[in-house]
Design a protein that fits this description.
The chain is mainly β. The protein is 6% helix and 49% strand. The protein has six helices and 52 strands.
Length: 983
């Protein structure tokens, strides 16, 4: 019995083996190689047997091997960014496949907030900039990558310091006091907008400018940036979308063999432009002309003594790979940027890890995760926003009498008496200021796909920052309350933001002509900010850094402070529905309800709807056979967004504790304080013609902002000094945006493309009936308490309000309209026109690209000319060269007036880059390239300051200012050499 069973099993096994052998004999193996049009291998390209789910991927050399059944007739070859290709394998065992880059103008996937969309399905005004189109050169933060790239977007570097903040405006300025910066979203996580760098205001030096809140991001990690401009695009972000949204998407791993990408660059920077001040010989001649004394008998260059050639090193390494179920990418970066001012710079260390994994046999369960960690170390100079008559470093360097030596014969520094001119070399050496910030931005997002239509996704994220700052001012600095004693400060700050959201999405092709996409979600965010500070003066020795011996000053000369902002919470419910009919008619509706603890008890919730539609005219039957238009679409949208960017607790009663435990009310509660809201209409046209050789968009928008959030001093007698209200009135922004991109030349060896974008803007405040509101403080000697801007009906925000200068009388004294009794509304600092020009020329392996941007129709107030370099300095300090012989008396007082308003129009060549693509080098290096970049090569402008692209923060009681220059950190011109390759 056992023998019979054994024989049966043996026979069955032999039969199965024979059948397997026959089947195997009928299958065949197909091999091949996949390259691009230049013959470069495409690792990770997908190879699928047509009609099946079987296939493989190409290896690092672009080669593949796949076993196919006898009935298989073709392979489908695909890779992201390339047009899929069907390759016949009938009668073949080896194929060579050359993929062409895809024309992705309309099929690109664009991130739209809690989801994605094809570009051709967009109903809102959204612009996407890819990594290949980013600005080249030294960039410490992502906002600099897209300067001049997007219509309606103004990015203005506030000053030239490494890591400095930027003023970013999307479609103009809308808020009077609250933040005008856009909302930044990194990989789905909305950022707080603040940074944990402690503030600093040392005796006599003023408030140092802010750091850029995006400094923690490694620019090499960014894949795309989307700019959401109109309400139909931003309303999904509700109360945080009023000023537009910029979405930053980082690079992700792709299926295929592991790859290592390496890039390194080194750059050298010098000052782009020096101001025209007198040299020693010119100063002596001026003293003689004005019959003054003050010749020090020497020759010196105050500004040159604090400048240097800054060297920057930037290295990035990333590793990525994975398969169909699990992908990963890890990156590491180090940037060491020396500033062009001595003892300034930014060191940045970054690391990130991201991954996407799918589980279960059905691949329905998945998880996405992203961790970004960074450490920045800034070394700062004493260059401030609001230094008084003592000035900050740049002002001191410009003012230094060029006939007075900076050093004594023995080599020691020449230090004058207290409250006289400050030796800039001594200030540079005697001031130490270092700020270190640690960042962690992490998110985890599990999801489950119930079927092809339904998906649930959850995300939890945390943004944690800790900053510490040590600063000291040496006792040799000849400032009152500093000389002979020395001062120091040690401050810390901590920022924590948590976010939790849930979304449920549905997408179904209802029929051949109808598609429905819908999403609902819930989100909760919590924000917290706190800090501690210690300051002291009167240190017994200079042998040790003051910040290491805080125990040595007396108790009366030591102060300790701490703060914790009221925590704020934001709870949101939101949803979006999109209907696509025949790929011709697309309707989108969104709704978000936000509840914020910042607002009064009677107005905690705000509601932000939007509606938009698109008509894809080019898909209509009557357009068939048309050879001129490749794409033609008409968009229209309307929506409401909000703004809650004002201090937490502003609507509630706030108490402050003083020494001894005494508490006092510092803020009057307002239970009726409600949301600032912006209603926006947008109408746009998308088009592509001449076989997609010329494409573009044209948009018109109208934005009406009401319920303006504002803080007034409380009317006395009152229990506290501050009171937040909604201002009566509105701010209107209207404009037209045009973006064009043309493929001018397309041949086998040559390719020339160009992009141009222009924006025409108008801003006006109306309906205001409250008290006078001045802002734009002017600082320096002799102008205490002066302002330069005022809010007024019928004028743009930040309109200059000044005495009208009409020249000099016969005695060299200033003449003002109406004898100086009346101030007049002048021009304003808001550009009427923004321009961006970008072009690229390719010839075989060479690529030359250039980017430039400009702004027109605005003026800048030159506070530097007003109070740092006036004619009255002559005899003790330096003056502007233009003042000599202009008819002005040396005793003339430099009043704040239209005399110092200057035309700010400019066109700047941001960068010019030449790249040589080496391609594969041996069997190890792939995609190798060498580049040379020039940055800030020239500026065409009539402005006499360092750079017309400047914005010193001159707010008054929190009312924002704009367009004022005050002895800022100068802009640098840079030349950079780079190399990159893949292993």
């Amino acid at each position: 019995m056992l023998k019979t069973r054994f024989i049966k099993h043996l026979f069955l096994g032999m039969l199965l083996f024979a059948i397997h052998g026959i089947v195997a004999a009928q299958n065949k193996t197909v091999t091949g190689k996949i390259t691009d049009k230049n013959g470069t291998a495409i690792p990770g390209a997908s190879v699928q047997i047509k009609g099946t789910k079987s296939g493989t991927t190409a290896d690092a050399e672009g080669t593949f091997k796949v076993s196919v059944a006898p009935g298989a007739t073709a392979l489908i070859i695909s890779f992201i960014g390339y047009t899929p290709q069907e390759v016949s394998i009938a009668g073949k065992t080896n194929v060579s496949v050359q993929l062409s880059q895809e024309n992705t103008t309309l099929t690109d996937v664009v991130v739209v907030g809690y989801g994605t969309s094809r570009k051709k399905d967009l109903t809102g005004a959204i612009a996407q900039v890819k990594a290949a189109d980013f600005n080249k050169g030294i960039t410490s933060a992502p906002d600099q990558l897209i300067q001049g790239k997007v219509s309606g977007l103004m990015i203005l570097n506030n000053n030239g310091a490494p890591g400095a903040s930027a003023t970013v405006r999307i479609r103009g300025v809308s808020s009077v006091r609250t933040g005008n910066q856009p909302l930044y979203v990194v990989d789905g996580v909305p950022l707080d907008g603040r940074v944990a760098r402690p503030s600093l205001n040392l005796t006599g030096l003023g408030q140092t400018p802010d750091a850029n809140p995006l400094n923690f991001i490694n620019n090499n990690d960014i894949a795309t940036m989307e700019v959401l401009k109109d309400a139909s695009a931003t309303a999904i972000y509700g109360s945080r979308g009023s000023n537009g949204v910029i979405i930053i998407n980082t690079k992700k791993g792709s299926a295929g063999p592991a790859t290592v990408d390496v890039n390194y660059s080194v750059g050298m920077s010098n000052i782009m432009k020096k101001l025209n001040v007198l040299n020693a010989d010119e100063y002596r001649a001026a003293l003689k002309e004005y019959k003054l004394t003050g010749d020090g008998g020497s020759s010196s260059d105050g500004l040159g003594s604090i400048l240097r050639t800054g060297v920057t090193h930037n290295i990035g390494v990333s590793m990525s790979g994975g398969n169909e179920t699990s992908r990963y990418r890890a990156s590491f970066g180090m940037m060491d940027q020396q500033g062009i001012v001595k003892k300034t710079g930014l060191k940045k260390y970054t690391a990130s890890l991201s991954g996407q994994s799918k589980f279960l046999e059905s691949k329905q369960l998945g998880i996405d995760y992203n961790i970004m960690a960074a450490q920045t170390s800034e070394q700062l100079a004493p260059i401030s926003n609001n230094a008084g008559f003592t000035g900050s470093l740049i002002g001191q360097a410009l003012q230094w009498n060029p006939t007075v030596s900076l050093t004594n014969p023995d080599g020691s520094l020449n230090i004058l008496a207290k409250n006289q001119a400050i030796n800039p070399m001594n200030m540079s050496q005697g001031y130490n200021d270092k700020a270190n910030i640690s960042y962690v931005l992490a998110s985890i997002s599990p999801y489950f796909k119930f079927n092809d239509n339904w998906e649930y996704r959850m995300m939890y994220s945390v943004n944690h920052q800790v900053g510490q700052r040590r600063a000291s001012l040496d006792s040799s600095i000849n400032i009152d309350q500093v000389m002979g004693v020395g001062i120091a400060a040690y401050n810390t700050a901590e920022l924590n933001t948590q976010l939790f959201n849930n979304t449920l999405s549905y997408n179904k092709q209802l029929s051949g002509n109808w598609n429905l996409s819908a999403m609902v979600g819930y989100e909760y965010q919590k924000f917290a900010y706190s800090g501690v500070g210690i300051g002291a003066k009167g240190f017994p020795t200079n042998a040790v850094d003051y910040t290491d011996i805080f125990q040595t000053p007396t108790q009366v000369n030591t102060n300790i402070s701490s703060f914790r902002n009221p925590s704020s919470e934001l709870q949101s419910f939101f949803g979006r529905v999109t209907v696509n009919a025949k790929d011709k008619y697309i309707l989108t509706a969104t709704m978000r309800a936000d509840g914020s603890s910042k607002f009064g008890a009677n107005n905690r919730y705000g509601y932000f709807p939007s509606f938009a539609a698109k008509w894809n005219i080019s898909n209509e039957d009557f357009m068939r056979g048309n050879t001129f238009f490749n794409n033609l679409g008409l968009r229209a949208g309307y929506g409401v967004t909000g703004n809650q960017e004002f201090p937490a607790g502003a609507a509630q009663a706030q108490y402050g504790l003083a020494s001894g435990g005494k508490a006092s009310l510092i803020n009057v509660p307002n239970p009726d304080l409600k949301w600032e809201s912006s209603k926006q209409l947008n109408v746009g046209v998308d088009f592509a013609i001449l076989k997609n050789r010329l494409s573009g968009t044209l948009d018109y928008f109208l934005k009406n902002t009401t319920n303006l959030l504002f803080s007034f001093p409380a009317i006395q007698p009152a229990p506290a000094s501050n009171y937040w209200i909604n201002l009566p009135g509105k701010v209107m922004n209207t404009g037209v945006e045009l973006s064009l991109r043309g493929e001018i030349i397309q041949t086998k060896n040559w390719r020339w493309s160009m992009g141009v974008n222009g924006t025409w803007l108008k801003n006006e405040m109306s309906g205001y009936s409250g008290p006078t509101v001045n802002t734009g403080s002017i600082d320096g000697q002799g102008v205490s308490g002066a302002t330069s801007q005022r809010l007024a009906n019928g004028y743009p925000l930040n309109t200059f309000y000044l005495l009208k200068f009409e020249g000099f009388d016969d005695k060299g004294m200033s003449i003002y309209a109406d004898n100086g009794l009346t101030r007049y509304y002048m021009t304003n600092p808001n550009p009427k026109v923004l321009l961006g020009i970008n072009t690229e020329v390719n010839y075989k392996k060479w690529t030359l690209s250039a980017s430039s941007h400009g702004a027109f129709g605005f003026q800048v107030y030159n506070n530097t000319a007003n109070t740092v370099l006036p004619i009255g300095n002559l005899g003790s300090r330096n003056i502007a060269k233009s003042l000599v012989g202009n008819g002005e008396a040396q005793t003339n007082s430099p009043a704040v007036s239209s005399r110092y308003l200057e035309n700010g129009n400019f066109l700047k060549l941001d960068n010019l880059t030449l790249i040589y693509n080496l391609g594969a080098v041996g069997k190890v290096f792939k995609g190798a390239a060498v580049s040379l970049t020039g940055q800030n090569l020239f500026v065409i402008t009539k402005y006499t300051g360092f750079d017309p692209e400047v914005n010193t923060d001159k707010n008054v009681n929190g009312v924002s200012s704009f367009g004022i220059e005050y002895a800022p950190y100068p802009t640098a011109r840079t030349f950079m050499l780079g190399v990159q390759f893949t292993l």
